[in-house]
Amino acid sequence: MINSLTARIFAIFWLTLVLVLMVVLMLPKLDSRQMTALLDSERRQGVMLEQHVEAELAADPANDLLWWRRLFRAIDKWSPPGQRLILVTSEGRVIGAQRHEMQIVRNFIGQSDNADFPQKKKYGRSEMLGPFSIRDGEDNYQLYLVRPASSPQSDFINLLFDRPLLLLLVTMLISSPLLLWLAWSLAKPARKLKNAADDVAKGNLRQHPELESGPQEFLAAGASFNQMINALESMVTAQQRLISDISHELRTPLTRLQLATALLRRRHGEFNELTRIETESSRLDGMINDLLTLSRNQHKNDLERVILKADKLWADVLDNAKFEAEQMGKTLTVTKPAGSWALLGNPGALDSAFENIVRNALRYSHNQIAISFSNDNHGVLIHVDDDGPGVAPEDREHIFEPFYRTDEARDRESGGTGLGLAIVATVVSQHRGWVRAEDSPLGGMRLALWLPLQGH
């Protein structure tokens, strides 16, 4: 077994080349139209016909004017049923051959003219045997037998043997499935490595033992790949643990700060500095929650998925958003409601992603928010528009990154944590969808979100 990929490819190339050359060189030798020696029974039959024709010519007196007629009479009389005899004179005249077969008769006569070693050869559906020597006084003739060929070779096979380039082409076509199978088997480890890399790109950090097999080159690459997975998994685990530990450590002083704020309000009443401290504490608490959610979502690819209906999935989010918009003095309109389209996903994650988009629009809009749902037969497209300050085109790809801040008015005093849209992008990616920012007809920003329907 060749373990080196380089040696395997080299060996397969030369083996294939040698096999093709052998086929091209050896097949013509299998042509049934090759000149072959007579069987003993065929030789005995020829000798017997030779004797009968000689006796017939001896019994029929020669006539200088009609010499060829007696030759015809002799071969017609002694031709076996379904077969014909042909005589060739010493001058090369052919007696008894039909006009359409003169070419093949001449061909055979040129190849077999020794009566001591008679031979036979197939020509399509006919076969010629001979020669046998005929003595007629002072003249000598050569006797040939034409009979139907037993198991004649097909016309297509004859065409192949007659045209070497066509034979080479057919040989290459026949060998193509074998070569394709060999190429597929050689590329199989590469496909496994590619699929494993796609899994890692989706955030699925699991080892692939099947990669550590096959040729040495792929075996070494698979081992290195699994080592990389181990290292990445350790790094991600350490990062998650660090974020979790930091968040929990921050919760303790944050709780104390909130408790101190409450005691301070009870003793001294309400004042501006105290309100400011409470606002920042709430913002810090929200940031910690969002950071934990983002960390969990980024590395959680085994989400439990169920079949969901779009019109029911986000109904509560829309009802709550309409209520909050009224309290803020804004208008939230659903221009195109969702239909009962089937989605396959995690209800909690999808609900959270949609809520983040809607709350983003509520936070930054001046007066209006418009939401529409549509179905393109492959997925659900959601548009959330607002009439806020919008986002510059160069910042639109970056707003889905954690803690990214633009210089526009949209970020000033927003009260956001900078993690909401990052959570949206993570959830949508886990559901094989996409989300992007565009210009809104209302003058602000449009967030477009697409999710595939079940079975797509």
UniProtKB/TrEMBL annotation:
<dbReference type="InterPro" id="IPR058126">
    <property type="entry name" value="CpxA-like_HATPase"/>
</dbReference>
<keyword id="KW-0902">Two-component regulatory system</keyword>
<keyword id="KW-0067">ATP-binding</keyword>
<feature type="domain" description="HAMP">
    <location>
        <begin position="184"/>
        <end position="237"/>
    </location>
</feature>
<keyword id="KW-0812">Transmembrane</keyword>
<keyword id="KW-1003">Cell membrane</keyword>
<dbReference type="InterPro" id="IPR003661">
    <property type="entry name" value="HisK_dim/P_dom"/>
</dbReference>
<dbReference type="InterPro" id="IPR003594">
    <property type="entry name" value="HATPase_dom"/>
</dbReference>
<dbReference type="Pfam" id="PF16527">
    <property type="entry name" value="CpxA_peri"/>
</dbReference>
<dbReference type="InterPro" id="IPR058125">
    <property type="entry name" value="CpxA"/>
</dbReference>
<dbReference type="InterPro" id="IPR038515">
    <property type="entry name" value="CpxA_peri_sf"/>
</dbReference>
<dbReference type="GO" id="GO:0000155">
    <property type="term" value="F:phosphorelay sensor kinase activity"/>
</dbReference>
<dbReference type="GO" id="GO:0005886">
    <property type="term" value="C:plasma membrane"/>
</dbReference>
<protein>
    <recommendedName>
        <fullName>histidine kinase</fullName>
        <ecNumber>2.7.13.3</ecNumber>
    </recommendedName>
</protein>
<dbReference type="Pfam" id="PF00512">
    <property type="entry name" value="HisKA"/>
</dbReference>
<dbReference type="GO" id="GO:0005524">
    <property type="term" value="F:ATP binding"/>
</dbReference>
<dbReference type="InterPro" id="IPR032404">
    <property type="entry name" value="CpxA_peri"/>
</dbReference>
<feature type="transmembrane region" description="Helical">
    <location>
        <begin position="165"/>
        <end position="184"/>
    </location>
</feature>
<dbReference type="InterPro" id="IPR050398">
    <property type="entry name" value="HssS/ArlS-like"/>
</dbReference>
<dbReference type="Pfam" id="PF02518">
    <property type="entry name" value="HATPase_c"/>
</dbReference>
<keyword id="KW-0472">Membrane</keyword>
<dbReference type="InterPro" id="IPR003660">
    <property type="entry name" value="HAMP_dom"/>
</dbReference>
<dbReference type="InterPro" id="IPR005467">
    <property type="entry name" value="His_kinase_dom"/>
</dbReference>
<dbReference type="InterPro" id="IPR036890">
    <property type="entry name" value="HATPase_C_sf"/>
</dbReference>
<keyword id="KW-1133">Transmembrane helix</keyword>
<dbReference type="InterPro" id="IPR036097">
    <property type="entry name" value="HisK_dim/P_sf"/>
</dbReference>
<keyword id="KW-0547">Nucleotide-binding</keyword>
<keyword id="KW-0597">Phosphoprotein</keyword>
<feature type="domain" description="Histidine kinase">
    <location>
        <begin position="245"/>
        <end position="455"/>
    </location>
</feature>
<keyword id="KW-0808">Transferase</keyword>
<dbReference type="Pfam" id="PF00672">
    <property type="entry name" value="HAMP"/>
</dbReference>
<feature type="transmembrane region" description="Helical">
    <location>
        <begin position="6"/>
        <end position="27"/>
    </location>
</feature>
<keyword id="KW-0418">Kinase</keyword>
<dbReference type="InterPro" id="IPR004358">
    <property type="entry name" value="Sig_transdc_His_kin-like_C"/>
</dbReference>
